[in-house]
Amino acid sequence: SNEDEEIIPISTDELLDNKTTERVIPTRIIKEISALSPTATENSGNALRRNWWKLLMAFIITIVVITVGIYFLAKRPRSKSDESNNNNSSGNETTNFNYPPNVTYDSFYIPILPQLDSSFMKIDNSTFDNTKSSLNSPPINQEYPYGQAGYPIRGVNLDGWLVLEPLIVPSFFSPDAPDEASVAKSLGPDAAKTKFIKHYNEFVNEEDFKKMSEFGLNHVRIQIGFWAIEVLEGESYVPYASWQFLLRGINWARKYGLRVFVDLHKVPDDKGILRKVGNFNDNGLNGLNESQRTLRHIKALANFFNRDNYTHVTSLLGPIDETNSKFVVGNLSEFYNRSYQNITASYNDSSRQPYVVLDEAQAGFSTWWTLLKSLNRAILGSHSWFIYNKEFSSANSSDYEKLILSWSCEQKTNFFSNANENVKTIATEWAAVVNDCDHMHAIDSSILLPCSTCKCDSDNDWRNWNQTKKDSLLKLAEVQMDAYESGSGWFYWTWKTENNHAPKFDYKLGVENGWIPDLKKNRTSTSFCDSRNAN
Fold it and tell me: Transmembrane region positions (predicted)?
């Protein structure tokens, strides 16, 4: 900038109003003011004249000092207490952290992500270094032995928290606003900020992480959107706020011995409502610029988590999730390889590097064997959803459960085959569901599969489920857990839903009411597939 100009940060309110991010105050004005002095106008003339000038200059200086003081008081960056007081006075949820942060970039135009704001959460990480969530987990300050027998991942997704979806939080959405961007745009910046931060603050809290540990889980998958890292002009997402909540969640996970899978769940230029991430066309990622931008975001995450207080806690990192079916495997493989190299380059010590989870993209496990074997710290992730298989949807009720259990046993064979090929494989999303009564894609009902045996009103009335129904769902959950643990483990989708409105997807509700197993107790159906194959 100009030599005679001083950059003064703009206030939070002005940032939210999309005004300029800098305020230029000419330094020469400050210099001229400071140069003013009662003696500057003295001369050797009449003493009365000198006194008159003294009084005049003193008066001028007083006025200038008061004016400048008021100006800088009004224009200084808003402090944390100011932000809190402002939010409380307006009835909004207090954020207790600087928002939005001052976003900076390194020389390679990689975003430099801010640390957890100490006024938002204070925690002594060293206090919890020896915590572990279950008997089969090493302490949180040690590396997790992924792929080794006896150490399966047993985790849940926290979808619907920092990335919102209609199935999980339906009250946020409408046909006119079916995704986060359209919701934020329809509300406007200030109302969107208030609404989303209130949700981040209330939907998940410390008690959730404590419960996960008590239920015997050892991992949690936390989804974020690219807007936690960077938002450009014209993008209507609520920028950056979810980042601080991610860091707070990671610290809660550490406290209760849980390891975290940070999943970049939504990437730029995702135009599909039903695709959580990735808008692929026949030539790979939709646009070189957007793929390069995603790689920068992945690099930003890797750079940030290469810190002592995150090593072994953020032990899994996902660069992209659930890619569109219209892609070229070679292009996606190249994107995966570059993502992996970006992450690896941030770590001098490979034992500190998180394992990189690469989505199978419904291309078949063996498609990725060559790539996975060439990457030392990579895991193949698969979404295991049988409810969208037309063979199942057209089956009569007497065959339905048999088909689903048979499919689950086939999954066990597939996961075991991958393990034999030295390819670590996990089910990143699955649930003990037998139909789409919960409307996973509720905004667009055109893709729902018909189900002649479904009676959705009674099917979702979980308070009136009889023991037979609960036992059936429990068996389905146990058989799938057994199948995925023949590989490297699983993440149930999802931890909870708004007002328990999708009960079969609601892990917390299922454990509390008996149709999802308590992992600290012996499971009863673990030998089902083995005995079935023996017969």
Answer: 52-74
